[in-house]
Amino acid sequence: MHHPGIGSFVFSAGALAFFSVFAAAPALAQHDHSLIQAGRDESGMLHMHTHDAMPFEVMPSVFAGIDGFATAEVAFESLSADHPAIGLFMLDEASDLRAVLVAQDHGIQVFGGGPDPLPIGGEVYLGHPFFHVMPVYNIYDGKVGDEFSMWFKFTDVSGMYSESEPFELRFVAVPAPATASVMMMLGLAGMRRRRV
Question: What is this structure's pTM?
């Protein structure tokens, strides 16, 4: 089965525009988006780790063919350094990981490298470390302020590591920055009128 290479984009038939980025160099760890990191403990069990606060913000979709709210700014990444203080360590380069979709709220879905959203039990291909993969998360049935959850687990098809416990990712629909600025200005204008 073919998987995209470094920095490649995946497009479905038609105009559906989503992408998955598979990075093979630690240089791509320089980022301005959220990271869901995969590591392992001393017993060889996989674990999720993140420094980023949830819920992750999802703005109105800019992807052709994807309605509602959508983001590709929450990436799956392998740990690039050991963290013995919290018992997490880098993955062996021979491991071969997947992020398996365990459950999701109604109203949210994820595109993990194919033209259709992942079904429950579907996999986001992560591959051999170092990886940096950016699925597209889509809130298709919600309004600004609504929150949604998805649950994943990491598995290693090489058999080197045991699978992780399911972990939750939380998302919230937010307005586009310009819309938020207009709403703020309208709110301030209303406050000024009330003071007069």
Answer: 0.78
Q: Is residue 20 part of a domain?
A: no
Residue 13 domain flag: no
pLDDT digits (tens, 9 = 90+) for 105-141: 999 999 998 889 999 999 999 999 999 999 999 999 9
34 close to 133: Cβ distance less than 8 angstroms: no
Residue 174 belongs to domain spanning: 26-195
Dihedral sign (CA 146, 126, 118, 134): positive
